[in-house]
């Protein structure tokens, strides 16, 4: 019997990714082109530029993944592709490519929800059983959900305005951290984390936000706003541009990172109390999965780990390579759906992309 293989294609934002995985979570081959550095020069993602880069790279990336895996399209059991949520123009590139390939080789096509893929990736590398709690923190999202099954998610809360990565990126850009030697290629969040290690997180006070809100949602726009005001005040006082390693910048980064982490875990704690009351996660040990680009942050990880310990959850974090956007997680989600016999599209031409 031939072992099942699924090709996954990701193009929802600024990464073109492809990978082939088998049913045990073994990665046969993967390839990724990140537009990260190009968008850094524009101060943010410009959708038509992202689309053009996906168009340029999608064929080389998929071909490279197949080549590395030593397989051809005819060896595949199914083709999985991200269709939501994301930038519609970017998603469209993957959808057209994936469906064309599925038709050409007469393969089942599995549309993938990018956030669900993030949530399930951990199951490639660790035994995490349903139901489990997932906390997804990235440049585009801050989302807490109960994962009940491969295709069954219960949303507990999400971002009302900025996502945490977005806030970290904006502040890093405002501080011009990228001008500092050794920081040139780091993401905004990565740069703030590195700088924060040199500072005191209690040196600058940020407000505690959403103290009266009786749900599990998140808001980072107020913290970002306050951060920008503080930077401006400092600049006026000292007439400096904060692009060198000076104690003020380090203290500021440490304090801002602390404020972001504090907001995340305060809301998380609410959600865990609510989940407990509702009996959402009955099994022990209870599992919590932390993923998304911001989950690479060790300070934030440790903060989340403390809350998990308090509420008797075991914390799972996929390795950084699997936390950020990639084709592997799409292939794996496709594989989980393929195994469960769920989500294979009958009418391939009816599939559309969605930004939400
Ligand atoms: O999941 P991801 O690769 O892409 C999406 O946003 O979907 O996450 C990217 C985000 C960026 O905002 C980046 O600044 C943030 O993850 N990030 C970090 C770190 N590394 C990446 N944030 C905090 N600390 C880090 N070490
Ligand atoms: Zn993502």
UniProtKB/TrEMBL annotation:
GO terms for cellular component: mitochondrion. Its EC number is 2.3.1.234. The keyword Metal-binding applies. The keyword Cell inner membrane does not apply. Keywords: Acyltransferase, Metal-binding, Mitochondrion, Transferase, Transit peptide, tRNA processing. It is an enzyme of class 2 (transferase). It is found in: Mitochondrion. GO terms for molecular function: metal ion binding; tRNA N(6)-L-threonylcarbamoyladenine synthase activity. Residues 27-332 form the Gcp-like domain. GO terms for biological process: tRNA threonylcarbamoyladenosine modification. Its cofactor is a divalent metal cation. Binds 1 divalent metal cation per subunit. It catalyses: L-threonylcarbamoyladenylate + adenosine(37) in tRNA = N(6)-L-threonylcarbamoyladenosine(37) in tRNA + AMP + H(+). Homodimer. Belongs to the KAE1 / TsaD family. Required for the formation of a threonylcarbamoyl group on adenosine at position 37 (t(6)A37) in mitochondrial tRNAs that read codons beginning with adenine. Probably involved in the transfer of the threonylcarbamoyl moiety of threonylcarbamoyl-AMP (TC-AMP) to the N6 group of A37. Involved in mitochondrial genome maintenance. This is N(6)-L-threonylcarbamoyladenine synthase. It comes from Artemia franciscana (Brine shrimp). The chain holds residues 23 to 378 of 468 of the full protein.
């Amino acid at each position: 019997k031939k072992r099942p293989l699924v090709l996954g294609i990701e193009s929802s934002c600024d990464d073109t990714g492809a990978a082939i995985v088998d049913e045990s979570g073994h990665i046969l081959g993967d390839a990724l082109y990140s537009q990260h550095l190009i968008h850094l020069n524009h101060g943010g993602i410009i959708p038509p530029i992202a689309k053009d880069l996906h168009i340029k790279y999608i064929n080389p990336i998929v071909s490279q993944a197949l080549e590395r895996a030593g397989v051809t399209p005819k060896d595949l059991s199914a083709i999985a592709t991200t269709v939501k949520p994301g930038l519609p123009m970017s998603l469209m590139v993957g959808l057209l490519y994936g469906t064309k390939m599925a038709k050409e080789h007469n393969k089942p096509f599995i549309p993938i929800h990018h956030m669900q893929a993030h949530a399930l990736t951990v199951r490639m590398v660790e035994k995490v059983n349903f139901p489990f709690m997932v906390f997804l923190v990235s440049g585009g999202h801050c989302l807490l959900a109960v994962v009940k099954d491969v295709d069954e998610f219960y949303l507990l809360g999400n971002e009302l305005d900025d996502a945490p990565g977005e806030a970290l990126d904006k502040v890093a850009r405002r501080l011009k951290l990228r001008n500092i030697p050794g920081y040139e290629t780091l993401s905004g969040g990565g740069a703030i984390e590195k700088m924060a290690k040199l500072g005191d997180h209690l040196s600058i006070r940020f407000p505690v936000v959403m103290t009266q809100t009786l749900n599990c949602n998140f808001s980072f726009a107020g913290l970002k706003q306050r951060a920008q005001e503080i930077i401006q005040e400092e600049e006026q006082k000292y007439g400096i541009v904060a692009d060198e390693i000076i104690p003020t910048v380090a203290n500021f980064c440490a304090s801002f990172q602390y404020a972001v982490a504090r907001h995340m875990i305060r809301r998380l704690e609410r959600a865990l109390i609510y989940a407990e009351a509702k009996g959402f996660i009955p099994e022990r040990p209870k599992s919590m999965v932390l993923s998304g680009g911001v989950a690479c942050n060790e300070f934030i990880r440790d903060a989340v780990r403390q809350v998990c310990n308090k509420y008797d959850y075991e914390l799972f974090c996929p390795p950084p390579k699997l936390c950020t956007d990639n084709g592997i997680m799409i292939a794996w989600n496709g594989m989980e759906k393929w195994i469960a016999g769920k989500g294979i599209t009958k009418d391939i031409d009816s599939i559309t992309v969605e930004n939400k």
